[in-house]
Amino acid sequence: MSNPANGPRGRLSKRRNTTSDQERDQEPGSSNNCGLSRRSTEGSQSPAEVLASSNRALQRLAGIAQYLESSFTPDIDVVEGAYGTEMEKENKIRTLNKTLETLTHIKSEEMENLRHENEELKSEQEACDQERKRCQEMKKELETQYTEAEARREEENKRKMQEEKAKLHKHVKTKKAEFEEEQKHKVRELKDQKENLSAQNRELEQRSSAAEEKLKTKKTKHALLEKVLGEENKELTTELEQLKAEFPIERQTIEF
């Protein structure tokens, strides 16, 4: 807070007070001179003289006080006004300081709360980081397990495919051998059937040739027989005609 005596009126009053002090020091009956005179003459004065000197000094001081009061009352009013203004400012400043202290205290409490919250959040963040790290480790472990399981599955599938392929190849080979054997058997059967058919054909041809020869012989015999029978029939007819001519037959009516 600024001192009211530092203003223009304060400096004027200070100069006046300094001048008055100097004048009082120079006056013959001033208290300073009295003090010096008293110190210088104290050893030779009686108590009554000392008391009278003190009364004069007091009267002189009372006069000086009246002079000062009459001379510096306006300045004192100005100083008191300025002092009142400064006091009001001081009160405002004190109120502001108190408000500032309250706000500082509140801020300090809030900062303390924020510090605790920050510590809690930091702890939670550390816990979250640890949990995240644990999750990442678990994820990495699961990925490793998945990769290993996938590799084992692929290896198992490959092994099964090889086994199935070998089994299929063996089955195909067996089926092929069975088919080839069956085809050979069928070929042999067909060959045997062909040979049998050829033999049967030859036998049938032989039989057919024999039958044709026999039929031809029979036809020849039949032709000769027909020729003989024809000649015999012709002879019989001639003989019958001769007999009819020799022995005619009368026709008779047959009555019933």
TrEMBL record:
Residues 42-51 have a biased composition (Polar residues). Residues 1-51, 140-218 are annotated as: Disordered. It comes from the Eukaryota. Residues 140-166, 175-195, 202-215 have a biased composition (Basic and acidic residues). This is Uncharacterized protein. The lineage of its organism: Eukaryota, Fungi, Dikarya, Ascomycota, Pezizomycotina.
